[in-house]
Amino acid sequence: MFPPSGTGRRRQFDDRRRAPGVRVSAAGTVGADPFGSYILDLLKQEHIDTTHVVTVPGATSTLVIVLTDQASGEHVFIGHYGEGPEVPYPMGLEQRIAEADLLFVMGYTLAEQRVAPMAHRAIEQALAARVPVYMDVGPFLGMVPPDEIRWVLARTSLLLTTEDEVPSVSEGRTGDEASHYLLAHGPATIVVKQGKAGCRVITKRESRHVPGYPVRVVDTVGAGDCFAGAFVAGQLHGLNLIDSARLANAMGAAAVQKVGAGKNAPTYDEVMAILHRAGERLNF
Questions:
Q1: Residues forming a β-bridge with 209
Q2: Distance (Å, rounded) from C-alpha 95 to C-alpha 103?
Q3: Does 273 have pLDDT greater than 80?
Q4: Which of 139, 160, 211, 258 is deepest in the core (most CB within 10 A)?
Q5: pLDDT at residue 173 is higher than 80
Q6: Terminal C-alpha separation, the chain
Q7: Distances from the Cα of 184 to the Cα of 114, 146, 179, 226, angstroms
Q8: Average pLDDT over residues 228-253
Q9: Is 129 contained in some domain?
Q10: Rg of the Cα atoms in the chain
Q11: Is 61 in contact with 35 (CB distance < 8 Å)?
């Protein structure tokens, strides 16, 4: 489930020319404005089904301005949520979820008031259909009431987060205490994104650090989204958790070497080149 906003996640391995077998359907909303039309066009160009993306008359798109420090490659966002009435549930989405291998939800979705009811219903339908729910926390899930965070955690199979975001979903906890809390409240797996250091994959059986790949950082915009998209693609292609993490680390490393996200996100070949230089190979 994707509330279209122009981040790089949607492109990662969605183009079947780059990685055969991954089919993506987006669900959410865009504004009835030129920005919304542009986003839909981009998604369609990448062979992403936009049937369940709702355009509500009179509503506006969420807008984000990205500021990047050229010296460090670090970035900040300045944005404004789109405005409009509650988004109606898309016709046919229930069946699409029932047929899916996985439902992916971004924390942004639950923080955006007009889309949150759609996300809740989609998650419940995935649960009823025994479709696993993966969620990427993001920087704004902490704005959601604690009881709602506990609700979604209880329905999440795999949680993606950064170390900075962990306290926002664990009632202020950090480190091992946070991991124990999260594993006890729903997710079977936690993947903590650690930037250039790589990531940590945590289950009830083990906590394993998967090192990143050293590269020159040009721009960090979209790197976390790229990581998440690659991890999901790895899981859908049958990779185990650790190999999915390696693939995601390689995608993140390839992403920070380029300016921008979206259509500038890494290609399949660029990601494989990162792995090749490290002397690694994945069955992907």
A1: 200
A2: 12
A3: yes
A4: 160
A5: yes
A6: 23
A7: 30, 16, 8, 28
A8: 96
A9: no
A10: 18
A11: yes
Q: Quick one: 216 exposed, middle or buried, by C-beta within 10 A (0-12, 13-18, 19+)?
A: exposed
Considering the domain boundaries, does residue 36 fall inside one?
no
Enclosing domain of residue 228:
215-284
pTM: 0.89
How many structural domains does the chain have? 1
List all residues 6 or more positions away from 205 whose beta carbon is below 8 Å from its beta carbon.
none
- In single-letter form, the type of residue at position 256 comes to V
- Over the stretch 203-228, which tens digit does the pLDDT of each residue have? 999 999 999 999 999 888 889 999 99
DSSP 82-127: ---SPPPPPTTHHHHHHH-S-EEEEHHHHHSTTTHHHHHHHHHHHH
Question: Per the domain annotation, does 241 fall within a domain?
Answer: yes
The strand pairing partners of 192, in sequence order, are 161, 200
User: Which amino acid, 180?
Assistant: H
Name which residue leads in pLDDT, 265 or 276.
276
